[in-house]
Specification:
mainly alpha
Length: 180
Amino acid sequence: MTLRAFLLVTVAVGWWRLPAAFGHGTGPGRRNIAIQSAIVAAIAVCMAWVSGPILDGLAVDTETFRIATGLTITALGMARVLGWGSRPEPVDVDAGVAGSLWPVAYPVLLGPSTVLAAVSVGSDHGVFLVLIAVASAALFAVVFSFLNGGGRWSGSLVRLGGVVLILLAVALVFDGLRDV
């Protein structure tokens, strides 16, 4: 279950969409990818850190939130499989990190799947697992930006990531149903 939780958080972060957003991954674009990955990792870890108070404030138990997370991530995985938003619009790398935070860091990296996965896994397995998973995703984003110049593989990887998300999310739903 810990490996599934690790994979869920790692795949929920849309790290494979970054090179397509930054075009050919020039020097400033790669630097922006690294900085945005670090920002998203920090936010996801903070969400995992406050997952207990978030769930307590919503008066939702962990099992119910696990089911809701699984259902939502299943829908988001279906959107990725169908190719909806699989290739983000190119970003002007001269705009710097601040200029590309909105079209890339927020909807691409820090979307609902990332937040829900971080809160769910953080409440079940703790902050350390989320930290390791988002650090791995950030590392994958930087390495993938070097290997995938121009984003030529991004569409296929988004669809593959969607299939993996669906599998992990359905398992999360069944884990929640079993534990309720």
